[in-house]
Amino acid sequence: MNICMVGYGMMGVWHSDALIGRDARFHTLVGRRPEAAREFAERYGYARWTVDLDEALADPEVDAVIIASPSETHPEFALKAIAAGKPTLLEIPLAMTLEESEAVVAAADARGVPFGLCHPMRLQPEYGPIREAALSGADPIRQIAGRFYIHRLSNVGATGYHRSWTDNILWHHFAHFVDLGLWLLDFEGELAYSFLGPLHPQTGIPMECILSVETPRNQTLLVSGSYCSRERIYDSLIVTDRQSYRLDILRNRLVTGDGPVEVAPEKDNLALVTQDFVAAVREGRQPAVPGRSVLPAMRVLHAAQMRWDAIHGRQSLPGRRLSD
C-alpha cells in the first residue's frame, strides 16, 4: 500500500515508525519546508517528497493518506484528501471549530472513503475491559478525570523542536480526554461547566482550561489543564464501583487499588491506530475511530468555546484562524 504522509513533526515520525515492517510503502512525504521535507523523506525512505499537497494527491499511485500536519490545517488538508478519493487518517484534532468538523465528516460520508481519526486513547488496551464492564453493568463508572499540565510559554513541542505553529489547549489536548470520557461512558454528552482562561500576554492564547460533563446516570467527566504548569502531568483517573484506575501517560504506569503495573507507552498505542488504519483500507471498512464518532466530543469543545467567545468576543487566535 502506497502511503502519503503529510507532516514531518513528531506525529509524522510516530506514524512512519508504526508502518515499518507493515507491508506499506513510503511513497510520498508532503512538508512545508523543502529542506526539512527532503531530509525526512531520505531518512525514512519515502520515494518522493513535495511541498505541494495537491500534487501528491493527484498521483494515482497513492493509496492512502495520513495527515500529521499542524492542527489548524487539518480540515483543509482532510477535505482535499477526501475529495481526491483517498482513504484518510487524520491526526487529532478533527478541526478547530465544530462547523469545520461537521463539514469534513459530511464530505467523507458523501465520498464513501474510509476516514479515521487518530485517538490513541480509545485503543489503549487497558481501557477496553473497563468500558465493557461498565456498559454491561458489571462495574459502572462513577467518575472520569483527565489532566494535562505542561510549561509552554514558548512555542516548543514535546521533542524540543521550535514549531512554526501554535497549540491549543481546548481543541487539541482536551479533545483527547473529552472523546475518551464520552466513549467510556457511552454518552454523547452535554457541557455542564467550562472555564477557558483569558489571552496570555506572551503567547496570545488561553493557557488554562477546565470543563465538566455530567450524565443522567450521575456520572461525571472532568478535564483540567494548563500550559503554565512547572510540573508535567498527563494522566487519567477512572473511578468505578469496584476499582480505580489511574493511567500515568508520561510514566507508562497504571495504578489501581491493587498497586502499579507498567503499560505500553503512548507511541505504541498510536501505532495501533496507524496499523488499524492500513488494515481498514485493505479490508474496505472504516477505521477503529471513524470520523463521525468524534463529533460528540467536538460539540462539547464547541460549547466551551462559545462560552469563551461570549466573554471575550469571537476572534482568530494563534493556531486557530477563523474564516470570515
UniProtKB/TrEMBL annotation:
<dbReference type="InterPro" id="IPR000683">
    <property type="entry name" value="Gfo/Idh/MocA-like_OxRdtase_N"/>
</dbReference>
<dbReference type="Pfam" id="PF19858">
    <property type="entry name" value="OxRdtase_C"/>
</dbReference>
<dbReference type="GO" id="GO:0000166">
    <property type="term" value="F:nucleotide binding"/>
</dbReference>
<dbReference type="InterPro" id="IPR036291">
    <property type="entry name" value="NAD(P)-bd_dom_sf"/>
</dbReference>
<dbReference type="Pfam" id="PF01408">
    <property type="entry name" value="GFO_IDH_MocA"/>
</dbReference>
<protein>
    <recommendedName>
        <fullName>Gfo/Idh/MocA family oxidoreductase</fullName>
    </recommendedName>
</protein>
<dbReference type="InterPro" id="IPR045560">
    <property type="entry name" value="LigC_C"/>
</dbReference>
<feature type="domain" description="Gfo/Idh/MocA-like oxidoreductase N-terminal">
    <location>
        <begin position="1"/>
        <end position="115"/>
    </location>
</feature>
<feature type="domain" description="4-carboxy-2-hydroxymuconate-6-semialdehyde dehydrogenase-like C-terminal">
    <location>
        <begin position="136"/>
        <end position="227"/>
    </location>
</feature>
<dbReference type="InterPro" id="IPR051450">
    <property type="entry name" value="Gfo/Idh/MocA_Oxidoreductases"/>
</dbReference>
